[in-house]
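How a chain folds remains the central question behind the approach discussed here. For one protein, we set the task of working out the structure tokens from the amino acid sequence alone. The sequence in question and its structure tokens are set out directly beneath this paragraph.

_____
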Amino acid sequence: MAGEEINEDYPVEIHEYLSAFENSIGAVDEMLKTMMSVSRNELLQKLDPLEQAKVDLVSAYTLNSMFWVYLATQGVNPKEHPVKQELERIRVYMNRVKEITDKKKAGKLDRGAASRFVKNALWEPKPRNTSKVANKGKNKS
């Protein structure tokens, strides 16, 4: 569309948006061809369980999002369709996977080292000279 003449079937103001949409559809098409070129089992065997979950969730979310767009193009309000609940459900699981990933990245606390840091950082009063007090008591006897 970028090199073509502007079609008079739609307003000139939306030509740029339609060009961007066409480019996006082309990119999605290329990604789908890439994903479909490798068998799912082959792909999942190379990944750990957490990565497998991520692939499954992204695939499900993408398909449901595409169905959302399809419904919108057909004049159906996707906000009133069960696909909305499905997208929310998938989003909840994506957040769970993100939490698990974040926990793995978080640093571990070394209690012994933390205790030493706190102990050395705290102010300790100087002990009073107890020998003077003990000596005063001895002199009077």
